[in-house]
Design a protein that fits this description.
Blueprint: H1 3-63, H2 76-90, E1 96-100, H3 113-124, E2 131-136, E3 142-151, H4 168-173, E4 185-194, H5 195-247, H6 262-296, E5 302-306, E6 311-314, H7 333-338, H8 352-359, E7 363-371, E8 374-386, E9 392-401, H9 403-424, H10 434-451, E10 454-462, H11 465-472, H12 474-491, E11 497-502, E12 505-513, H13 516-529, E13 534-535, E14 544-545, E15 549-556, H14 563-579, E16 585-587
Parallel strand pairs: 15-16
Antiparallel strand pairs: 1-4, 2-3, 3-4, 5-6, 5-9, 7-8, 8-9, 10-12, 10-15, 11-12, 13-14
Length: about 600
């Protein structure tokens, strides 16, 4: 969008909003003024009615006319309703008035709902002089209700007297007396003003003001637009043409805006800047060429990256595989290294730029990059690059392929892991050997001492294994040992330890026991697991061997409190099981 369009749109929007605000507050003010005028008119009408009512009433009382059926219509309670009916014939605005009560002698003067509400207000607030509110009629029309109280005075008791004291005419004409006393609330003078009168007056005034304001705003808008275009937009067009030429590298073009105002000063400043930029660009190109030749001589890839991940500079090694990334928008570091649209993230793949931004120091990270279709492990060393004012321009990132070194280190670690495993595990069954077993037993005893729980040590010796091994060969014996190891592991919990300590001897550590019955249950489970025969070979006619074991059990702390003691007692219990006929288990105590 052009600047002229933006300015016109902005000014237009400001004028529109200003016009809307002016109209809004003007509407509110007009509405308040008209409502105040209607209140004043209601007050004037009230004063006129009260004055007429008072003079009319006093004249009747002082005339000496006797109250009878012919003179009854002179009373305010009868005369005012008749005046209202004739008033409505002369005036069709909807305005009505009457003196009403919640207990009138004349049924015509009975108060409606909103009038009863006003009567309740004056009874609760006897010092109040007026009451005004809005309401909606049954037809949905909105009205302003203006009311003033009518208090009983001495002359009022001539008609509104105690029960039995009213004149014979009133008693004959009405069925009930009102039984009022001095200073009682007889009723209210009710004036109903249709809200449509207010709306009509507001609409007329708003229409008049709207067109006046609209004309003033339009004239002001056109004047501002003219001066803006003449003294701002046209000079800026000259500046734009000049800067466009400078952007293309033609610094010989000059803005040349005539005059002595600020726009002319800006034009001269731009021209001076163009000359300075042309000189500086030539110097920068020379320095950049020298720097590029220096870093191109480095074998490792090097990139200079700004804080927005843009590659500002790279050597030949870094750009060797990036010939397809030609535009400035595509010269992003993560595109070069990972062919990704998003920067590196996560603890396992940290972004060196973000680490430098966070710490302000040099960092070293390891990434997996793609090079010639292969994934390579690259070590990145990123150092901060500071501007002259101390702010961070970006980083200088040097990378080195360490794939061969990492693979060699991985092979060494794997060899160490295997050697460590062989040092602590039985190579035939994969179970912990005697060395690892002793270490685990010591730790298990320490945990048992802290928790106060029991621990069981089971010593197992396969029955007749030597016979099977000698008669069937060592290969068969090895298969028996592996099969037994698998079944023992399956018979205990994951937290328990099964170890082979030599020949056909196995030991099991049962931790976190509540009583010896748990060890008894595990021993029974082991015997049950050995019931299925061990099949030697894969053919259907291969030999099946039934393997049994004798188990000795020693319980901590009953049968000993040290690893050595428990081993001796479990071994003793195992021989006791063999003496009992094999294929059974026996506790030391």
């Amino acid at each position: 969008m052009r600047l002229q369009t933006k300015l016109m749109a902005a000014i237009g929007m400001i004028f529109f909003l200003s016009f809307a605000v002016v109209e809004f507050f003007d509407y509110r003010q007009i509405r308040r003024d008209v409502q105040r005028d209607m209140y004043a008119e209601a007050k004037v009408l009230h004063d006129f009615i009260m004055a007429t009512r008072f003079v009319y009433q006093r004249q009747f009382l002082e005339s000496g006319l006797e109250l009878d059926e012919n003179t009854l219509g002179f009373l305010p309670g009868h005369a005012l309703p008749r005046i209202v009916r004739h008033f409505e014939q002369w005036n069709n605005s909807g305005l009505t008035f009457n003196n009403v009560s919640d207990r009138p002698r004349n049924p015509v003067n009975r108060a409606d709902g909103i009038e009863k509400e006003a009567i309740r207000f004056f009874k609760e607030n006897p010092t109040a002089e007026e009451w005004m509110d809005t309401y909606h009629s049954e037809e949905g029309q909105r009205f302003f209700q203006y009311s003033t109280p009518l208090w009983i005075d001495s002359y009022c008791l001539n008609c509104h007297s105690r029960e039995g004291e009213a004149s014979p005419t009133l008693r004959d004409y009405y069925d009930t007396d009102l039984d009022y006393e001095m200073e009682d609330l007889a009723g209210i003078l009710s004036i109903k003003l249709p809200a449509s009168i207010l709306e009509q007056r507001v609409a007329r005034q708003m229409k008049q003001n709207f067109f006046t304001h609209l004309g003033l705003f339009a004239l002001t808008f056109l004047s501002i637009s003219f001066f803006l275009k003449r003294f701002v937009l046209r000079p800026m067009e000259h500046l734009k043409s000049a800067t466009t030429a400078w952007e293309g590298g033609d610094y010989s073009v000059r803005a040349a805006i005539a005059g002595k105002d600020e726009m002319a000063d800006i034009s001269q400043a731009f021209d001076t800047m163009a000359r300075a930029v042309a000189d500086r660009e030539e110097s920068v190109l020379r320095e950049r060429g020298f720097l590029q030749s220096v870093i191109d001589g480095i074998a490792d890839p090097i990139m200079v990256i700004d804080t927005e991940f843009r590659v500002l500079l790279m050597n030949a090694a870094a750009g060797r595989d990036s010939a397809d990334l030609m535009t400035e928008e595509e010269r992003l570091c993560h595109r070069f290294s990972h062919h990704s649209d998003a920067p590196c993230t996560g603890e396992d793949h940290p972004c060196p730029l973000r680490e430098v931004l966070r710490t302000g120091r040099s960092v070293t990270v390891v990434h997996r990059h793609h090079h010639q279709g292969e994934e390579r492990i690259v070590e990145l060393v990123a150092s901060p690059l500071w501007r002259g004012d101390g702010s961070l321009l970006g980083i200088i990132e040097a990378s080195r392929d360490i794939t061969a070194r990492v693979e060699a280190e991985a092979k060494v670690r794997e060899s160490e892991r295997r050697l460590k495993h062989l040092a602590h595990h039985d190579p035939l069954t994969g179970l912990p050997n005697r060395l690892l077993f002793k270490d685990r037993l010591e730790h298990a005893l320490e945990r048992a001492r802290r928790s106060g729980r029991s621990l069981a040590l089971m010593f197992l010796d396969l029955d007749c294994f030597k016979h099977f091994n000698d008669s069937l060969g060592h290969e068969a014996g090895d298969r028996i040992l592996r099969e037994v190891a698998e079944r023992l592991n399956a018979s205990v919990r994951e937290a328990d330890t099964v170890a082979r300590i030599g020949g056909d001897e196995f030991v099991i550590i049962l931790e976190e026991m509540h009583d010896s019955d748990e060890a008894r249950a595990v021993a029974a489970k082991i015997q049950k697991s050995l019931l299925p025969p061990v099949v030697l070979g894969d053919a259907e006619d291969d030999a099946e061997l039934h393997i049994t074991t004798s188990i000795g059990i020693a319980v901590y702390p009953t049968d000993g409190q040290t690893a050595e003691t428990l081993m001796i007692h479990a071994d003793t219990a195992m021989y006791g099981a063999k003496d009992c006929g094999r294929d059974t288990f026996k506790f030391y105590s």
